[in-house]
């Protein structure tokens, strides 16, 4: 993927004058660049991944690492990687790619539509011989991102095989913040969570989530919205959702960030991941022919 010719062909087929074009992104990878009336943004075919959303008159909402690799076969570090069909390490095969295999794969551009002042971009990926070697299931996954005053991301999964299947999924959103140590994540007080930094022990959140060390928490039974309060940027980001029962809050802090080859040593200060997901006991079971749609809606206001 990613040759100039195919990018030009895709642009001829899907581009909308004044609203969206298919262009060469970082590393020569194809991306849809959205310049709608209500927001600008971008979505790469690599991973079917949103990497930018800038509502009109506001600043960038998502974080992408300056050290990201931008290579087919490697996950982008930042933006909104789609994790599927497992989250973290695969339970029965720790050598399988972390967070599943779709985030490092080229997806197919399905449609670009202008609706009012929003632009919706749909990309898809499906099972093939390669995915069946890692996970013996037949599926079709569509990610539809709508760029407007809100950013709406819908992940639609269909079981196209003849056996029931069970999967995990996450919209692993990296939110850009000015200074992680001043951020508060609100809406999780009193919620049970799995602390992945402490042997997966189950604990109860007390008050807002304040990040002062490596944080890797899976909040259970959370169908409701959460808010990221970022006083240094004077903004509040709200994430509401549908058909998602878990929320992950992650920041690697400095030691882990240093060990990551695709993250700058100081970049851990500049983001918090608040992930809309169905993981752990909230993994989804789908009967043959059935479909599941998880949705995240992000909005920003001044605070
Ligand atoms: C988080 C996980 O969602 O993603 C963490 O809960 C993980 O355990 C992090 O370290 C980053 O994962 P990766 O594979 O992108 O380095």
Topology:
Blueprint: H1 4-14, E1 20-24, E2 30-35, E3 39-44, E4 49-55, E5 82-83, E6 108-115, E7 118-126, H2 129-134, E8 139-147, E9 151-159, E10 165-167, E11 169-171, E12 174-176, E13 184-186, E14 192-195, E15 201-204, E16 209-210, E17 215-219, E18 226-230, E19 235-242, E20 246-251, H3 253-259, E21 271-278, E22 284-286, E23 291-302
Antiparallel strand pairs: 1-2, 2-3, 3-4, 5-11, 6-7, 7-8, 8-9, 9-23, 10-22, 11-21, 12-21, 13-16, 13-18, 14-15, 14-17, 17-20, 18-19, 19-23, 20-21
The structure holds 6-O-phosphono-beta-D-glucopyranose.
The site of 6-O-phosphono-beta-D-glucopyranose (BG6) has 11 residues, from strand 20 and strand 21.
Summarize this structure briefly.
With 303 residues, the chain is mainly beta. The chain has one domain (3-302): Beta-galactosidase, Chain A, domain 5.
